[in-house]
Amino acid sequence: MPRNTLTAQIAIALTSFLVPFVGSAFNLALPQIGRDLDMNVVTLSLMVSAYLLPCAMFQMPAARLGDLYGRRKIYQLGIGGFALFSLLSSLAWSSTSLIVFRALTGVASAMMFGTAMAILTSIFPQQQRGKVLGINTAVVYFALSVGPLCGGLLTYYLGWRSIFVVCCLIGTVAVIFSLSAIRDEWADARGEPFDFVGTALYALTLFAVIYGFSLLPNAASWALLVLGLVAAFAFVRFEYRCRFPVFNLSLLVNNRAFRLSTIASMINYSVTAISTFLLSLYLQYVRGLDPQHAGFLLMLQPIVQTVVSPLAGRWSDRVPPALLATAGMIMVMLSLSGLCFLTEDTPWFVLVILLLLFGAGFGTFSSPNVNMIMSSVDKTAYGTASAVTGTSRLIGQSFSIGIATLAIHLYLGTASISAEHHAAFMSSLRLTCAVFVALCVVGIYASAARLRK
Questions:
Q1: 256 and 175: one domain?
Q2: What whole-number distance in Å separates Cα of residue 80 and Cα of residue 33?
Q3: The whole model's pTM is what?
Q4: CB 324 within 8 A of CB 363
Q5: Reported confidence tier of residue 42, pLDDT bands at 50, 70, 90
Q6: Do 414 and 330 share a domain, yes or no?
């Protein structure tokens, strides 16, 4: 165990803060970046994808490299890379250079994500694991809460480059903390070969699926999704025959608790578009709020999640984590059920209650579910479990945006959300919420099924 577990937890909390912070803050800077670097909307969206795709594609390979060469080593290389490429992003001289640096930052983030939870789980004993993971989850939600506010202030007063400078400084502090506190090394698969073919098929699968969902409902999206299915089939066949696979599929096939927890996690994150995307459009276009007031209202959800997550994590050390996670998903479903009846005149206090309930449900679900995922595997699989947790989150979020985009396209087509189209937009919002409620029912079943011995 490291000499100072508190310092190690701070180091990992700083890196857990960085990625959601820069993502949420970065969105506020997009218009200014577009003007400064002469980028159109398509190029701006490509810049966002350039970060998310490598982050998803390389988490599992990074976790495997951690098992082979040491999780601490890969983790610290990831932090250093994140700080370096953030600095280079602040010095970007063109749209191409910024896209390249953001892609490299995504790879560095994958190295952190693929090992951070595994290191935390290795450091702390099981009776403290829920509390520690709960605090770490709360840090993520705190970053999502303050990211838009800080991003707007930094962009307004210091310019968009200052966001990356701040991330570089925080990353540098995290490197110093991790070098001083995390001294032990974990490499449970040292000496085994690396699975290059499986890694390529895995990366191709995630690229096609995530990017395909982001393009819905364009024709190219369906071609990419079909390619993703073919690549996934080839990946599964190859991994079953591989002696040292990049992803040990037996975890999903033979480990019931791990399988159900992963399904529940992916479904839980597949309903996030309602708060991050659709409600933002609803508040600004339908209810007439400016971005500042809409942002303050939407901050209610992540603030509640920040408060509830560490409490739920601590409780999960004393009561069955599956029970808490199931209760959390039920609260999310009840909130979405209420949003199904949202209208142009819904009282503000009703919307506030639904957002608070949504945040409480999400916070109650997340840290106990992560605790159960990490506690359901042997220490040799901590890296894989950590990577699966991060990847399921990204896949669920991309699936969420895909569903919302399809619903909007079904009712609005390519029309803008103007006054005459408010009714059509509200229909798409209610349809999306209904689909999310149905997904929550499946997630509740998957989560509750873990309670059976």
A1: no
A2: 25
A3: 0.78
A4: no
A5: low
A6: yes
